[in-house]
Amino acid sequence: MSAYSITEPSKASKWVAGILVTLYMVITLLPLAWIISTGFKTGPDSISYPPKVIFSPSIEGYVNLFTDRTRATPEQLATMPPPDNFVDEIVQRRGEVVTGPSRFGERFLNSIIIGFGSTALSIVLGTLAAYAFSRFKVPLKDDLLFFILSTRMMPPIAVAIPIFLMYRQLGLSDTHLGMILLYTGVNISLAVWLLKGFIDEIPREYEEAALIDGYTRFQAFRKVVLPQAATGIASTAIFCLIFAWNEYAFAVLLTSGNAQTAPPFIPTIIGVGGQDWPAVAAGATLFLLPVMIFTILLRKHLLRGITFGAVRK
Predict the structure, then answer these.
(1) Is the bond preceding 9 in cis, omega lying within 30 degrees of 0?
(2) For a surface tag, which of 43, 178, 248, 291 has the fewest beta carbons within 10 Å of its beta carbon?
(3) Does residue 236 contact residue 191 with C-beta atoms inside 8 Å?
(4) pTM for this prediction
């Protein structure tokens, strides 16, 4: 038998591995499951002690998330017409009336615009820069790559005040463009380093053959390199989106109204009687969906991207 032969794991080893993976999955998903379930609890159930695992589901949290409400006296409720939709029925049952829509929808839309906008810009600029570093003789290449990477090492709080003052002078505070440029500047270092590794794995002979066939350098890049780098581009896009989607510090400092995203808005959701935990949990649940859907759509590319380069061609 060869010294390099691989032995089959025993059944006991498989069972132990399966139990450990299942235990890790339960521990990891338990907080997520608790947040989702809290979004379907009533206010008293969400703060009950001991915590309720079995409860009667309710959509009060989602109603509270998308509406602004105020207390109404019994006399006011008696003079109001019967509710014509389930929202008014749920709210009036608690002795409240709807005064208008909340601003969660606007904040959620801001997150989509800023998150996906900065991700797209980071991928475009990062791909071009990574291709240049991979294929051309750039003066001081190693120093430039290290400088680009060093911007990722800097804690956001260290540059918060300079960026705040600069944005105020340039009129970029509380604007979508300002947040997109800021998140792009932070993400581009990650994009360049990740994509350079993927492009390095693509043989140069493919481009040389395309150039011999009459392609221009840009045509060879677009028709030869980009299709083969799709795996790396998809993986990098997921990581860039996760950062831009979850970023909190700059969003709190630089936005307050027009461009405020969901992360700084969700913790400020206050109900008539105090902190509205079902509405907070409902907002957090909805906030998870875009990144989750985006990751699921690109899951095959993500898996291939993580293992890319493990076995060279």
Answers:
(1) no
(2) 248
(3) yes
(4) 0.83
